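Usage

Read records sequentially. Each one opens with the input sequence:
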Amino acid sequence: MNLRKFFLVNLFVLLLGVFAACSNKNDGQTDSGADEQVSNEEASSEEGSAGEELSGSVVIDGSGTVYPLMAKLAEEYMANEQPNVSVEVSRAGTSAGFKKFLVENGTDFNDASRPIKDEELEQAEELGIEVKEFKVALDGLTFVINPENDWATELTAEQLKEIFLASSSIEKWSDINQDWPDEKINTYGPNENHGTYEFFFENVLEEQDLKDDVNLQQEYSTLVNLISQDPYGIAFFGFGYYVNNQDQVKAVHVDFGAGPVEPSLDTIAEDGPYAEFTRPVFTYLNVNHAKEKPQVLDYAKFVINNINNFAGETGFAPLPEEEIEESLSFLESIQ
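and closes with the structure output:
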């Protein structure tokens, strides 16, 4: 009996030990699972605060030159950043766009291929609109001809000026070179709504009158079509429209005094050999709207953060990083 009792006591002790070990193991798993759940909840909370879902609209108008770049950014933003925000991009032209921007409840952004004018800034001040200028890229004014034109592939800056100038005696291609066709030069360009027209008028023609018969158009696509059908035509517009339509037009190489230069992303860059016809392009932000509408401020930050990533593929030379950082610093200061 004593031996049996001894055996039973030892068996009971052994079972208690096994039970205790299992209990400790389960307790450890429970604690670990709880810690993991808390960690996941914290991570989820942090992700939510960093990636707030926004809704509403962002309304942009203005430059037809800047349009391809801003349209691409809008597409990327709605697809990958904020699918519940509608970014509407139109292209009335720089000057026409400012008329929509500088009114009560106007557009959120105005894209521009020229700087804002003093009178437009005065109008903004009268309306109580705080305006912020952002340089977004560099563009090169590009002269294009029909692919069949094999004679005027290289022209001097002065010859290009004379082709469009009212006071010039140049009317036919043969007036430039007697070996060239004895055919009238048909001239085309964007109309007065566009900053490209103003840049050309002010910087190339030096504010002298254009010929009366220059065919000025609102849509850049129309200009591409006209040149593609006119072997004796020549037009001017932004580099991006040339890049995206090289199957229909070709660019004139411009001699600024040191030999012909082909417009390209490298040559139109800051201080490049095409610099005489290079210009910055802009977007203007209604800061009041950025303070009132989170989606407008968020989109502005997205644009500046990503502008150099999409500049090249839409026909623009990128900006120096220090200019990007300055723009972001301003946007971060908006409360």
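Summary fields computed downstream for this record:
- The chain has eleven helices and twelve strands.
- The chain has two domains: 56-138+280-333, 139-278.
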